[in-house]
Design goal:
The complex is a heterodimer of chains A (about 190) and B (about 80).
Chain A: E1 18-27, H1 31-48, E2 51-67, E3 70-82, H2 87-96, E4 102-106, H3 117-187
Antiparallel strand pairs in A: 1-3, 1-4, 2-3
Helix pairs in contact in A: 1-2
Chain B: H1 2-8, H2 19-23, H3 33-36, H4 49-52, H5 56-71
The chains are: A alpha+beta (about 190), B mainly alpha (about 80).
């Protein structure tokens, strides 16, 4: 994915040094333990004489599968400039380290642009939410339309029923009137036919 | 005859275009969950090139990225 260039491209300061990207996964801990873990990880890099370029704290995230009984974990991504001969040392140190579930040291390609994936992920989550919201909205609108249609149909039916009832009521009344009038006419003695 | 030929053809006969080539991608990042996710199916397998239409160059990059993401627990091996 090509994102707009927010941060400068990675270029090592000298020829003996290579830039490495280190992603560390550690379990959900209390704040003190968390900071201790981060300090320890950073300490291992500093021991080797690595220079930190960037750091990206992802925070708490759900894992796709449980790792050592943890369904959630915290990610940190570091960018370090260090001697390539000392990568193995740090790798083993990270492997042994307590409270580190997984770690990965990768050499990013030339011209790699550092992205703040913590922010991008949150943005994506928000966008996804909006998509879901749109879907729910559409569903609700459909339901509303259906309800309105039903109400209209019912109203029509009731109107029709009323009209028919009125007509039915009116007709006998007229007939009654007619019979009354007829009776009156018949009973009238003044009329001579 | 013409109708028969039409029915045998695919609904959309246009050739599939690699979405990564369109963007000019040079490296698929394993940390980029939103781009990797649609290229795995419900069971966590990587979608075949036949369905997604990705070129071989980018499929190889994508596979590598997905494997790294799986190791870090961002994507599932098997669901």
């Amino acid at each position: 994915m090509v994102y707009p260039r927010i941060m400068p491209t990675l270029e090592p300061s000298t020829e003996d040094v290579v830039i490495y990207e280190c992603c560390v996964l550690y379990p959900v801990l209390q704040q003190k333990d968390e900071q201790a873990v981060l300090k320890e990880v950073e300490g291992t890099f500093e021991e080797v004489g690595a220079k930190q370029i960037a750091k990206d704290l992802w925070g708490r995230r759900g894992l796709a599968y449980s790792i050592k009984g943890n369904t959630e974990g915290n990610f940190v991504v570091y960018y370090y400039e260090m001697d390539p001969s000392k990568v193995k040392e740090t790798d083993t140190a990270l492997k042994i380290m307590k409270n580190v579930l997984r770690h990965l040291i990768v050499k990013p390609p030339k011209g790699y642009v550092i992205q703040k994936y913590s922010e991008l992920y949150e943005k994506w989550l928000k966008e996804r939410e909006t998509i879901d919201q749109v879907k729910t909205r559409e569903k609700e609108e459909k339901l509303k339309d259906q309800v309105a249609k039903r109400a209209k149909q019912q109203a029509r039916r009731t109107d029709e029923r009323k009209k028919t009832e009125v007509a039915e009521v009116k007709k006998p009344m007229e007939q009654a009137d007619l019979t009354e009038k007829l009776e009156k006419l018949i009973s009238d003695d003044t009329l001579d036919l | 005859m013409a109708q028969q030929q039409n029915t045998q053809r695919r609904s959309d006969p246009r050739a599939k275009v690699c979405p990564f080539c369109g963007k000019g991608t040079k490296y698929v990042d394993y940390k980029d969950y939103p781009t990797l996710k649609p290229y795995t199916d419900y069971f966590g397998n990587i979608r075949a090139r036949y369905y997604s239409g990705i070129c071989l160059k980018h499929q190889k990059m994508l596979r590598h990225a997905i494997e790294l993401a799986r190791f870090m627990g961002m994507l599932a091996y098997r669901k």
